[in-house]
Amino acid sequence: MKQVAAGVYQLTIQRFVNLYFVETDTLGEWVLVDTGLPGSEKSIIAAADAHFHFGSRPQAIILTHGHMDHSGSALALAEHWQVPVFAHPLELPFLTARAVYPPADPTVENGGSLAFVARFFPPQSFQLSSVVQALPADSDTVPFLPDWRWYHVPGHAPGQVALFREKDATLLGADAFATTNHESVPSVLLQRPQISVAGAPFNYNWQQVRESVQKLAGLRPVAIGCGHGPAIQGAEATDGLQKLANFFPMPTYGRYVNDPARLDVNGVAYLPIAPDDPMPQRLTLALTGVGLLAGAALLLVLQRQRRRKQQTFPTTDYVSSRRFAVGSSR
Hints:
- By secondary structure, this protein is an alpha/beta fold.
- Helices cover 34% and strands 18% of the residues.
- It has a seven-stranded mixed beta sheet with strand order 1-2-3-4-5-6-7, with helices on one face. The protein has a six-stranded mixed beta sheet with strand order 8-9-10-11-12-13, with helices on one face. Strands 14-15 form a two-stranded antiparallel sheet.
C-alpha cells in the first residue's frame, strides 16, 4: 500500500491495476475506489484488514467506470461487505448486463503493446444489478466523502469519473490519463512514472479524451493517482498533466479518431465500421511459417537419425553377403 496523499492509499493488484482506499472524516471509516480485475477480492480484503483492522469494511464502493480492470471484483466485494456500489448513470447499462462496451480498436496509431493485447480482450459487461446504483444526479459530492467532488471525464468510458479533493489538490484520475507510459507493457509492469494517454485502444471518442485531460489539468493537482501507474506528487504531477493537455498526442488514424462511437443511457447508439486489421493475417502467415520451419527441422533430424542407424547397424543384405563370402573362402 502506497500513500498518495493524506488518507489516500494506492493498492496495486497484479502489478498493473490500481485501486484506492480513501479515508472519510470519521476515524476508522473509508471508501474503496475501484475494485481491480475479477478474482482480486481476497487480496483487497486482506489489504483492508491489514491497513485498518480485521473485518474492516468500507462505507461504499465507488467505480470510476465499469471496465473489467476497475469493476471486476465489485460484486464479490459488495456482497462480502454488504455495501453499495456507486457509478455514473451512463455506466449503468454496462454494469447491469444491458449493454456491452464498444469493441477495442487495435488499429489506432501509437496503440503500442496494449493494442496487440486488446485483440484478445473479451466483450466487457457485468451484472451488478443487485448492488449498483447511480451517483446522485443533483450533486457532484462523492458519497461518504464530503471533501471530494466527482468530475465527468468521458472518452475512455461514457460515464467515467475522476475524483478531486480541492483542499490539498489530490486527484484520482481513473483512466482519463495514466501515470505511466500506457503504450508500453514493460513500463506499466515496472511502474515507471510518466503522465501519458491511457488505454488508447479502448478510447471510443478521442475529442472527449482530450477535453477530459484538459478539464483535469485545469484543476492543477499536486498529487495524482490513476488506474495505471505509480502515484505522482508535486511539480511533476501538475506540470506533467498540463503538458499532456497542451500537447495532447491526437492519433491520426484509428477506428474512433475521426468517427467516434456514440453512447447514451441505453448503451451504444452508434459504432463506426471497423477498419481492416492486417495483424491477424500477418499472425497467421507468421505461425504458418513457423510451422513449416519446425516441420522441416523435424524432417532433417529424422533423416540424420536414420543415416546414423544405417552406419551403425549394417543392413540384412550386407550381413548375408559377408557370411557367404566367409563360407566360400573355406
